[in-house]
Design brief:
Blueprint (H helix, E strand, L loop, with lengths): L1 H12 L4 H7 L7 H4 L1 H4 L3 H23 L7 H9 L4 H28 L4 H19 L4 H20 L7 H26 L3 H29 L4 H25 L5 H28 L8 H21 L17 H25 L4 H16 L4 H26 L6 H19 L2 H18 L9 H24 L5 H18 L9 H16 L7 H27 L7 H17 L7 H12 L4 H22 L7
Helix pairs in contact: 1-2, 5-6, 5-10, 5-18, 6-10, 6-19, 7-9, 7-10, 7-12, 8-9, 8-15, 8-16, 9-10, 9-16, 11-12, 11-13, 11-14, 12-13, 12-22, 12-23, 13-14, 13-22, 13-23, 13-26, 15-16, 16-20, 17-19, 17-20, 18-19, 21-23, 22-23, 23-24, 23-26, 24-25, 25-26
GO cellular component, one term: plasma membrane
Membrane topology: Multi-pass membrane protein
InterPro entries: PHBA_efflux_AaeB/fusaric-R
């Protein structure tokens, strides 16, 4: 019997994780110490972030309670939502959170005022509005998307909170707005105290990131030319470049106004992406051994891109007075996923209302508020299915910890000092978990909703019945949203790969149109961002398919760059009319058939080389570069992988 008990215990919590390991940690565990390294051996920066955020959350809670606000628990939730590892991220998120809160409060008041006695119309309009916010957020980037979804779920929180007392909807909206602003201010105050040398640190981080990316690109270019780099290596470097590009906005915010460092940094990264595309073409020419002299002009263009990147990095390090440089990288907009996001959120709100309408659940209004809130938090995730699983597990941990606090700890708290001591420890642990990628998904829901489930108040506390109803509404909402993401128009990375491949092929053909205004930088940044997004979500895709897809996308990036070059050359008046006509004929075939037109590339290149004989030096140089681009297009087409659209 003893042996059976030991075996049962090992199967539950043994070294491989067992049932509890799969439930709470998502899979087998190597060792307890390695799994808890984020808690037992935190870095100095992780500890500073956790302590800073915990103190800010507790400070906002104490101020809200001192102001006699009715629901002070929403203030620390705001702190954990806004708190980020860098001050620039916090500033950006706080700015859009305040804007979204103000607009959401106004929409919530308007909905209650428009449909005070018509619940069906009220929830239909609320569902459509949240669907529009979640769908529209797909077209925005960074925390702008968060600001839009925040508008949706803030309006839901205000409106559903006023269902029982519609005459007080304005007071409820003002209270919710106060909590948001209070949380933002507290987080900003603690961040300033913990990071006094903000501008210098931000500039150093930006320069370190750019110089690191530059060295990585140089290494990959060297490997490409020597034939040692494959598509996976190129994809990894592009992932690093796009990650650095996403951080530029936050560093620029920390550096303060009056600087164009962000524009120069974007331009430097765009030049690095162009270097990769050029190097790939040069490597293919070397492999094909088509015409050896054709590879001569390419290194000059390659070094020119290197110089452009260095110049922009230097402009970031030493800004010049009167600098008016502007640059913006673009990324693809996902229309189908936006529609799916909107439809899913809209149907989810309507289904939640029907559940409340049929069951008459006393916590139905809270359930719908939580549903809208979780939809908003998940809507900006690239793969909501992957994000919803750790979010649910973090919610289970949150409910467990909140039960201990609400039922045993909080009744014994008699002074603010005791409250600080009681909450500081668990919030610091949550802050440390948020800094480790393996546990960040759990901490995401744990940190935000722990104060909400505890429900601290000035003169009262949650009764056991109220706590369990609130916790049940929260867990039911998280589970409900997770299942809707799996059942209603689920995100599938394989279908997303096929859609992106078709989109890339269509855009590649359209680049040859004389009316196209897509620049090289736009094409490369859109293609790179689409490729990187898929790589982040392609863990379940077999390696051969993933590598073939990466090869296809890298090939399309290089071909598109040269098509844009040919389109611009065809308009250059320095070239003879016959040469421009020949290039236009090739571009017309490309616009009709796409990469199949490369069958004419070598013929057109040979004809242009003959046109260059005896031409002026400037004209000869342009014709030689044009012929080289055509040879690269032919080499790229012959290197076509086996990925099927």
């Amino acid at each position: 019997m003893r042996r059976d008990n030991v075996m049962t215990s090992q199967s539950m919590v043994g070294p491989d994780g067992g049932l509890l390991g799969r439930l709470f940690f998502g899979g087998p565990r190597a060792s307890l110490r390695s799994q808890l390294s984020w808690l037992l051996e935190p870095s100095a920066m992780d500890l500073i972030f956790a302590v800073r955020s915990s103190l800010a959350a507790i400070l906002s809670l104490l101020i809200a309670m001192g102001m006699e606000l009715d629901s002070p628990q929403w203030a620390p939730l705001t702190v954990w939502v806004v708190a980020q590892s860098s001050r620039g991220e916090s500033l950006s998120k706080a700015r859009w959170r305040i804007a979204g809160t103000v607009l959401g409060c106004g929409i919530g008041v308007a909905l209650i005022a428009a449909f005070p006695q018509a619940s069906a119309l009220f929830f239909c309009c609320l569902a459509v509005w949240i669907g529009l916010c979640c769908g529209g957020a797909t077209f925005l980037e960074s925390y702008r998307a968060y600001g839009l979804v925040l508008t949706g779920f803030t309006s839901a929180i205000v409106a559903t909170g006023a269902i029982a007392e519609p005459d007080h909807v304005f007071d409820i909206a003002m209270a919710r707005g106060t909590y948001i602003i209070l949380g933002v201010v507290c987080e900003a105050l603690l961040a300033v105290l913990f990071m006094p040398t903000l501008q210098a640190q931000a500039r150093k981080r930006l320069l370190d990131r750019l110089n690191g990316a530059f060295q990585a690109v140089r290494q990959v270019v060297s490997d490409l030319v020597s034939g040692r780099a494959d598509a996976q290596t190129q994809g990894q470097v592009l992932t690093d470049l796009m990650a650095a590009n996403a951080r530029i906005e936050f560093d620029a915010l920390e550096m303060g106004p009056g600087t164009h460092a962000a524009d120069h940094a974007h331009a430097a990264l765009a030049a690095m992406i162009m270097v990769l595309a050029r190097a790939r073409g040069m490597a293919l020419l070397e492999q094909e051994h088509t015409v050896e002299q054709q590879s001569v002009p390419l290194p000059a263009a390659l070094y020119a891109d290197y110089d452009i990147a260095r110049e922009h990095i230097e402009a970031c390090a030493h800004p010049k007075r009167g600098d008016r440089f502007r640059f913006k990288m673009t990324s693809r907009r996902h229309a189908l996923e936006a529609v799916e996001n909107g439809v899913r959120a809209c149907m989810g709100i309507l289904a939640g209302w029907l559940v409340w309408e049929v069951t008459g659940w006393p916590s139905g209004a809270g359930f719908i508020s939580f549903v809208a809130l979780v939809y908003g938090l998940m809507a900006t995730r690239e793969n909501p299915i992957l994000a919803s699983t750790p979010f649910l597990k973090g919610a289970l941990w949150c409910a467990f910890a909140a039960a201990i606090y609400a039922l045993w700890v909080m009744p014994a708290v008699t002074a603010p000092e005791v409250l600080i001591v009681m909450l500081a420890g668990v919030m610091t642990i949550g802050g440390l978990a948020a800094r480790k990628p393996a546990t960040a998904g759990y901490a995401f829901s744990f940190n935000m909703f722990l104060p909400v489930l505890i429900g601290p108040g000035n003169q009262s506390r949650f009764s056991e019945e109220a706590f369990f109803n609130n916790a049940m509404a929260f867990l039911a909402a998280v589970t409900f949203v997770g299942w809707t993401y799996r059942l209603v128009l689920p995100f599938r990375v394989d279908s997303h790969m096929r859609r992106t491949a078709r989109w890339g092929a269509s855009r590649l053909k359209a680049l040859a149109a004389p009316t196209s205004r897509v620049t090289v930088h736009q094409w490369l940044s859109e293609s790179a961002s689409s490729l990187v997004r898929i790589l982040r979500n392609a863990q379940g895709v077999p390696d051969p398919i993933r590598l073939a897809y990466m090869q296809t996308q890298c090939r399309a990036m290089t071909m598109g760059m040269h098509i844009v070059f040919l389109r611009n050359v065809a308009k250059d008046p320095i070239l003879p009319l016959n040469a421009r006509r020949g290039i236009r004929v090739f571009l017309r075939k490309w616009a009709q058939t796409g990469p199949d037109a490369t069958a004419w590339a070598s013929v057109t290149a040979g004809w242009l080389e003959r046109q260059a004989l005896g031409a002026p030096p400037d004209t000869q140089d342009i014709l030689q570069k044009t012929a080289t681009s055509l040879h690269i297009l032919a080499a790229e087409h012959s290197d076509t992988p086996s990925f099927v659209n």
